[in-house]
Design brief:
Layout (H helix, E strand, L loop, with lengths): L24 H14 L3 H18 L5 H15 L3 H18 L4 H17 L3 H17 L5 H17 L3 H18 L5 H16 L3 H19 L4 H16 L3 H19 L4 H16 L3 H19 L4 H16 L3 H19 L4 H16 L3 H19 L6 H14 L3 H19 L4 H16 L3 H19 L1
Helix pairs in contact: 1-2, 1-3, 2-3, 3-4, 4-5, 5-6, 5-7, 6-7, 7-8, 7-9, 8-9, 9-10, 10-11, 11-12, 12-13, 13-14, 13-15, 14-15, 15-16, 16-17, 17-18, 17-19, 18-19, 19-20, 20-21, 21-22
């Protein structure tokens, strides 16, 4: 199974409002800082917000500009990967708005929405879900005047659903958000680009490239025209579009977009930023697919170290990098080094997502394949059985993802001399492959060969001859 790729979220700035008629130094700093932040000049934005915060503190807790400044400085910290600092500021901002009373639900909801995104970026998914849902409940009470804020809250809730592998829910949520945005905004607004990009990613993850591509290109056009080619938000779309090109086999173009996104992110944030780690990880996955294992290993190692430093030892991104590093070391026949990395990834995913998640399924699949290479057939059998149970619960018994797991189980049984059982599993895998991909797919052909072999080993020669005859006919028709 392929390496995992990643997608960041959305954070909203608060503009200056409710201030005196004549702008003072605090307001000026906020306006200028907001512009630097929008333009991607995060270091200058941070400096100005920090100065504005010192001025706002002097006005007391009931000056509306204090929580606004806290929120906006938190947005910069989030963009720079300093999530703990952002979390602290957003907690305080939301508390101040609540204490100020009056008609502050909209402002509380914005802070909660941003706080939920910071939780999600840190892998605190339970806290993120509760915070997003609280924000969403506040938005829904405000009906039309908060429609765009509601779309943002839905967008972030959908992003959480996507990270949990619940793509149908994410798709429906993004489509709802897009409908709200289109009803209230022009077609080229940046917030629409964000939703288009995220909906495209859901389509890509569901292997629907024809639906994903036009959305990526539309999002790229909006962001590039508004922000310029060298902006981090443009790099996000380039990165995700590169993943689509990789999925469809256009490796040369995928590498071009991955490298451009990586260069922009390094220039904007420096090498310690989580988004740079994501670009290293994604480029590594492409190089691994091309057999460029030494280059891929270095990139996976760098992404693992960067994510550990930025996000801690038990974040899902760390698990993704560990799993990918394990896979490339398996390909390089460094099997003893691969197993502890797989086990580490599995432990993180189970802790964060629970035992019934597609990333757990993915790591179990890879771990089972590793055990087969190590001739640890009983361990491989146990892992494949567990992976099949997870896949069936998530996707259903006839889903295409069940087929390679069932074939892996068959190989483990065959290696232990249980040929009749192995042939039964190969037969089931073949049925799923054929239903999913059609009778002429390469996976169907390869599986038929294994199926015929186990039938011979089980001394079921008549059945084996029938399968071999079908296989020969398929191979002959390919040559014509």
């Amino acid at each position: 199974m392929g390496p995992k790729r990643l997608l960041p979220g959305v954070c909203l700035l608060l503009t200056v409002a409710g201030a005196p008629a004549q702008p003072d130094a605090l307001e000026v700093k906020l306006v200028v800082a907001n512009q630097h932040r929008v333009n991607g000049n995060y270091a200058e934005a941070e400096r100005l917000y920090a100065e504005a915060l010192r001025l706002a503190e002097q006005s007391g807790d009931y000056d509306l500009r204090l929580p606004k400044t806290l929120n906006n400085l938190a947005a910069v910290y989030q963009a720079r990967g300093r999530y703990a600092e952002a979390e602290s500021l957003l907690r305080r901002a939301a508390d101040l708005y609540r204490r100020q009373g009056g008609d502050k639900d909209r402002l509380v909801a914005i802070c909660l929405n941003n706080l939920g995104e910071v939780y999600r970026a840190q892998g605190k998914l339970a806290e993120a879900e509760a915070t997003f849902r609280e924000s969403l409940a506040l938005r829904e009470q405000m009906v039309v005047e908060a429609a765009l804020g509601l779309a943002s809250a839905i967008n972030n809730t959908a992003l959480l659903e996507m990270e949990r592998g619940r793509y149908e829910y994410a798709e429906a949520a993004y489509e709802r958000a897009l409908s709200i945005q289109r009803a209230h905004l022009g077609p080229e607004e940046l917030s629409i680009a964000t939703t288009l990009n995220n909906l495209a990613e859901v389509y890509r993850l569901q292997k629907r490239p024809a639906e994903a591509e036009p959305l990526y290109l539309h999002a790229l056009k909006i962001r590039e025209e508004a922000l310029g080619r060298n902006h981090p938000e443009v790099a996000q779309v380039l990165n995700n579009y590169g993943a689509l090109l990789q999925d469809t086999g256009d490796y040369a173009q995928a590498e071009k977009f991955y490298r451009e996104a990586l260069q922009t992110r390094r220039q904007s944030f420096g090498d310690a930023h989580p988004s740079v780690a994501a670009s290293w990880n994604n480029l590594g996955s492409l190089l691994r697919a091309q057999g460029r294992c030494e280059e891929a290993e270095e990139l996976f190692r760098k992404s693992l170290e960067a994510w550990e430093d930025a996000l801690g030892q038990e974040h899902p991104h760390v698990a993704a990098a560990a799993s990918n590093l394990a896979e490339v070391r398996t390909a390089m026949d460094r099997l003893a080094e691969a197993e502890p990395l797989h086990q580490r990834a599995l432990g993180i995913y189970e802790k964060v997502f629970g035992p019934k998640h597609e990333q757990v399924e993915r790591v179990l699949h890879n771990l089972g394949a590793l055990y087969l290479k190590q001739h640890r057939y009983r361990s491989a059998e146990a892992v494949f059985r567990r992976a099949i149970a997870v896949a069936e619960e998530i996707h259903g018994a006839s889903h295409s993802s069940v087929a390679p797991l069932t074939a892996g189980l068959a190989a483990a049984c065959e290696a232990q001399g249980r040929y009749t059982e192995a042939s039964r599993h190969y037969e089931r895998a073949g049925e799923i492959y054929e239903k999913s991909f059609g009778p002429d797919h390469p996976q169907v052909v390869a599986n038929l060969g294994h199926y015929a072999t186990t039938l011979r080993l089980a001394r079921r020669d008549r059945e084996a001859a029938a399968v071999e005859g079908r296989l020969q006919s398929m191979l002959a028709s390919r040559k014509r």
